[in-house]
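User: Structure with SGN, tokens only please.
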Amino acid sequence: MKLNHIVSFCLIAILFACKENKSEPKEVAEAKQPNIVFIITDDHAYQALSAYDDKLIKTPYIDRLANEGMLFQKAFVTNSICSPSRAVALTGKFSHLNSVRDNLDVFDTTQVTFPRLLQKAGYETAIYGKWHLKSEPKGFDFWEVLPDQGHYYHPEFLTPQGEIKEKGYVTDVITDKAIHYLDSLRTDSKPFMLMYNHKAPHRQWWPSMHDLEDFKYKKIPVPETLFDEYKTKSKASAEAEMRIADHMALSADNKIAPEILDKLNYEEFLDWYKSSYTERFNRLNEAEQEQWQKVYGPINEEFLKNSPKGQALTLWKYQRYMEDYLGVIKSVDRNVGRLLEYLDDNNLTENTMVVYTSDQGFYLGEHGWFDKRFMYEESFRTPLLIRYPNHIKAGSVNTDLVQNIDFASTVLDVADVEIPKDMQGLSLTPLFEGNNKDWRDALYYHYYEYPGIHMVKRHYGVRTERYKLIRFYYNIEAWELYDLEKDPQEMNNVYDNPDYAEVQKQMHKRLEELRVQYNDASDRLNQKWIDSDIKRLKSLGWY
Ligand code: SGN
Ligand code: CA
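Assistant:
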């Protein structure tokens, strides 16, 4: 297969060679635009990706991209939550300029996006899997996306022809669709850009039938900060509703049947979680329900017998959380492996840039949390692995400060398409070659979804190589400063420590400069603007 591809490629190369420079056909051949596969998973913590850290799980297939390409050690997002991150990736603009500040905003599809520009430049574009931007995808020749968050089992998809329901496990189904596109829908004469976006490993972490048992009863190492009391932090941490101990659901998240919880008089943080568990369980077919019960039945019985409380319950919940979260990642890894193998088998590996990233990082018990949103490292950072044969040396590692704002410029640069002046990111291509001259020295961040689920307060900040300054605002006024070299776990807020007076001053200055540079104008922090924004969130039914 793909003989057509090779033939048309040669024809184009010959045509160009005749027209422009007969003596240099090789140069012309190299100028052919590469294919691009862009993989965005949902909530994949770098702590659970073995190219970064193998203490929790081995992900050999995703790791291939680092072994054969580049691993970015300091990749970050601009606003650690799903829809905003996706809008940033598509537009190359910060949330305040791209129409999506939180998960409730609707993406304005009249904007310039990198898929649109690629399409104009002769690429064929496609997206399969998670979209989560409310409006219909634009700029894609082919698309089938999950409605909203989508479901793990037998998922529905939105397509140009309307909604369809598929059989199977979501990560397998999305991969089947992506491979089907590559195999039988793609036009051989055009380069392609495929967005292959997973729902996994998003909450509520329902593993595939193949991986139900994998991590069960395996003792998972407990993070040192699981019982963090936020002693030096502002109230923003204590008031966030994302602690494993208090806000993780025994039913929906930990898969204890509601009737058992009722028997034990365990109360959920929100009663809704019980019906959510039942609704998801009922999506499984009979055979799956049976298989599920074989694994989760004994876990439920044991829970009924031991009914853990206090710290023991938190540790039990953490263990259960990790068993399912890691199980869900197993399937992502296997499926990414399938896609990479397809590229290998069809002679596509060489001329395709593959990017693997997540919409943000995630807490795996650090500071007692699950979820994301905060500017602390675990959720501010995100995995980023890029393989681009002949342009990136296999096994290279980059430690510069990069951000999802850079994705659009990078893809356009690689495709040799002009980067619009108002895109705010930088192309990563110089870093591919190890050239970090004049690279940025600081990152800007701004999170808005408050009031909202998990109640993480509005904040913005700056991170340099060594320090991080954060301001929480609206119904709180608090600054935090961290020395990441001395305190990588961010346990010690040194904002008021006189030893850091000069650092504090410098960081304030850098923060203001970035706000100007990225045009996050100060009127967005005035009370009138904030009040109307809060009104918008409340009118959409959130708190
Ligand atoms: C759901 C989850 C939340 C999560 C948001 C946003 N609850 O509401 O825990 O923060 O999605 O996630 S759930 O019990 O319904 O899964 S995001 O990745 O889309 O931003
Ligand atoms: Ca997410």
